[in-house]
Amino acid sequence: MEETLTAPAAELPSESEAEFEQLYRRSRDDLYAYVAGLLRDRAAAEDVTALAFERAYRRRRSFNPKRGTRRAWLFGIARNAALDELRRRRRQATLATEPVDDAAIAPEQGAEVALRRAALRGAIASLAPRERELVALKFFAGLTNSEIAAVIGVSETNAGTRLHRMIEKLRRACDEAA
User: Fold this and answer.
1) How far lies 158's CA from each of 145, 146, 155, 171, in Å?
2) How far is CA 157 from the centre of its chain?
3) pLDDT for 100
4) pTM for the full model?
5) Tens of pLDDT along 149-172?
6) Which ranges in the chain are annotated with CATH 1.10.10.10?
7) CATH of domain 15-95
């Protein structure tokens, strides 16, 4: 007599697990870009992004929709994880040399593009850490002003004003470098 073995049916994910999976799929690339922009280290950005999703998954039931969107909540968790990493780095010895820039300008690119990119990199490097964070949230992660406001804990109007001032500061710095 032959027996047929069957595996038990897999449980369907709960509603909060399904929502979290959807949040993960919609936000993972933007969240990584944001963290990579803050840390300027791809490997560390991968670790911090994974840590942020892990923390968010463990705390998914504590999300309060009255305080903002799930996406803004997630970026707030990632922000805290990235700031923890930056604080940890400050406690360690600094590198003897700068790490290799994987996004360095290729020689075959035009001189004009190379000059503009170098000016922009220099301008971004001259920004205060809070201003660099705005660059990362807006241009690396692609967040809206309302999402940025929720992440950094200010009004949407204030976030827009800060972004405008920061962009003007970048423009002036790039114009001076040209």
Assistant:
1) 9, 10, 5, 20
2) 21
3) 52
4) 0.66
5) 988 889 999 999 999 999 999 999
6) 110-178
7) 1.10.1740.10
pLDDT at 33 (0 to 100)? 93
Neighbouring residues of 178: CB distance < 8 A, sequence distance ≥ 6: 115, 116, 119
CB 78 within 8 A of CB 35: yes
DSSP 23-53: HHHHHHHHHHHHHHHHH--HHHHHHHHHHHH
Task: Outline which parts of the chain fall under CATH 1.10.1740.10.
Answer: 15-95
Q: Is 1.10.10.10 the CATH classification of the domain at 110-178?
A: yes
Q: Which amino acid is at 39?
A: L
pLDDT in tens, 36-78: 988 888 999 999 999 999 999 999 888 888 988 999 999 999 9
